[in-house]
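User: I'm preparing a small set of examples for a lab meeting where we compare how different chains pack in three dimensions. I only have the primary sequence for this one, and I'd like the structure in token form so I can line it up with the others. Please keep the answer compact; I'll paste it straight into my notes.
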Amino acid sequence: MVNFVLIAVCIIAGMVFKATKSIHPDAHKGINTWILYLALPAVSFKYLPKVHWTTEMLFPIVATFLTSVFCFFFMMFYSKSKGYSRRSRSTLELVSGYSNTSFIGFPLILAFYGESLLSIAIICDQTMFFSLSTLGIIAALKGGSKSGKISATFILKRLITFPPLVGCIAALVLSQFIDFTLAEPFFDKLAATVSPLALFSVGLQLKFNGWKKLIPQMSVSMLYKLILAPAITLGLAFLLGIKGNIAKITIFESAMPTVSYFKHHSRTISIKHKTHEFNHRIQHHHWTFYFRILVSNY
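Assistant: Understood. Below is the structure token output for the 298-residue chain.
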């Protein structure tokens, strides 16, 4: 119950602070920096060294990656049927095929399943970022630039400089040589800031205007997010015989809303403003929709 109260309080607090202009309009950027550079790496150091690795633990990696791949084909056929441009198709791919598995996923995992299963969510999250930084950037470049040229160097740079991914790899490698038992209280304190700050940041960015103009795009995007992506993951779990918590967490994470750091990606690779704004608005409405679900369930 406490976790559900935390979710509601943090998101509402962010909305109130924004509505009353009690906080800087770009305050969420500083909060997100703390989460990405300190809190999320601490989560990796707290949980990943304790993971018991089996072949089943590969399922979150495979399923998360395939969710993005299937979205590519789904949006390709859908966009062709509607006569959408390549730019609009890329936008739909980005907002539908990549999920916010950390900022939204981690707090919800804690609320619904408890702290012990967060390690599975971390695997989903890092795979999601890898997909976004490879397949996602390719889709964005093809839809947002005239040349559509793809730079392997740029993609590699995005991967090796993303703090949570660096923290994840460092936690996996260093834990084989160093005992982090004494540092666990430190990592625990940093990791505890993820949920409240991430949810507060989401509250600061929520918008409720302009959604009627995007109903067709939102509908198909939410169809993939809430029905098709979890169904694909569930089907894959049945096919591979994956059961229990690994399957549950992976399916749960596949239904998370749009990844929050796409906004940074789109600016970095210079997608035209119209496409970025279209994506940004759908992203906000995704979060709005999920917020309403949370409130109704609570």
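A couple of notes for your slides: Residues 87 and 143 are 4 Å apart (CA to CA). Residues 118-144 form the longest helix (27 residues).

User: Perfect, thanks.
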